[in-house]
Amino acid sequence: MNAQSERTTLTAAELRGLFLFESLDSTQLDWLAERGRVENRQGGAPVYSEGEPATCFFVLLGGTVAVLRRLHGDDIEVSRTDQTGVYAGATQAYLGDRVDQAYPNTLRAITDVELFVLPADEFAQAIRTWFPMALHLLEGLFFGTRATNTILAERERLVALGSLAAGLTHELNNPAAAAVRATDSLRSRVTGMRHKLALLADGRLDGSQLHQLVAMQDAAITRATADRTLSAIEASDAEDELADWLEDHGIRQGWDIAPTLVAGGIDATWLSDATAAVGEEHREAAVRWLAYTIDTELLMGEIEDAVTRISGLVDAARQYSQLDRAAQQPVDVHELLDATLVMLQAKIPSGVNVVKDYDRGVPPIPAYGAELNQVWTNLIDNALGAMDGTGTLTLASRREGDSIVVEVRDTGRGIPPEIRPRIFEPFFTTKPVGEGTGLGLDISYRIVVNKHHGDIRAHSRPGDTRFEVCLPITPPLEEQDAPVERGQ
Fold this sequence. Notes:
Elements: H1 12-16, H2 26-35, E1 37-41, E2 46-48, E3 56-62, E4 65-71, E5 74-81, E6 87-89, E7 106-109, E8 113-119, H3 120-130, H4 132-200, H5 207-225, H6 232-248, H7 254-263, H8 268-275, H9 280-321, E9 329-331, H10 333-343, E10 352-357, E11 365-367, H11 369-387, E12 391-400, E13 403-410, H12 440-451, E14 455-461, E15 464-472
Parallel strand pairs: 10-12
Antiparallel strand pairs: 1-8, 2-7, 3-6, 3-8, 4-5, 4-7, 9-11, 12-13, 13-15, 14-15
Helix pairs in contact: 4-9, 5-9, 6-7, 7-9, 9-10, 10-11, 11-12
């Protein structure tokens, strides 16, 4: 160190030589000289670290410093300078306790450096007292920008919610409409079955024949509910064969009921044996009664399938929103991914193949389920947009040490290298005007890194883009929900 580096204070004249203070009057310079001090740092030592309480304002007097930002667990150097008079540290101290007073970056001494240090509260007092108009302008700019960010972030969430709601409505409409149609058809079939039963039971059949008819009905229902699959050709051949049998036995319009009977597993041999007990004079009524019975059973199966699908969609929506769960609790990331896929089903083009490559051995993790679902939504939506309707979307999971990694891959056009460093910046978007706010990945970053103390990484080349979300299996002892600062 030279002799100058041993000083502990600066004179008013020395302060005036710094561009930051050159316009101050003598009284103000004396005030700064009285309250500030000179400090030295050895090369390689941090002057302050990102996230620590912002207690001081620093001005470089000599040497070289670097500004670093923490990204994905690594400190990334964003600037380096040896310009005398540059400043850093508690630059927002004038806002007081209205904002979190923490250092937004790390300042490191590259060589031995000399610094003028002013306590944060003294710096704040100087700004508020000496520059009242500038203070109002700065406050307006800061809080206005923050309010704009909040509004746009909420807008982003509302747009995403509207899209999901439209998709869910579309998905619910199909099974709901199917259930309504099946119910309407079922009503007419039950009415017809009652009429046929009245014809069969008006005294022309004895008790034993009625018992045989009921047994025949039970056997038909058993066949109708059996799990069987016929190809289109096999079904057509079976319908033709049964229609011929019906015509040979004098049953009118047999071609009309043959498809229903075949769908219920009924063939000519079984029908001949089953209706033999009622006699030829009652055979047509018995056959049509059986057709009504099978049709009714099939319609009830359709209703059950439709209602089950509706129930599954509702369950997926509940899983996606996590409305019935605590804010943070152990979650299975695979359930969250599956629920997100269901919610986005209407947005997945027919030309996109969805592949799941889950490691079922990964354990549940403590997380905010609804917010992780927002991350999956943003990443999957971006992947779909990059593929332009054709490609493969892959969702994968694996364990890496004390973390699990969820990977969203697509075969789209990729992210150009020149914009890759900016993709997590707020308001940065490559989408056309009106189609994106540039907040999807920024929000995802904040949820993963800040809320869950994890990491999110991107690797991309044409035909292979991967976003990896790393989440700790065991959370830190203390959860910190302060917003992640950007833009330094």
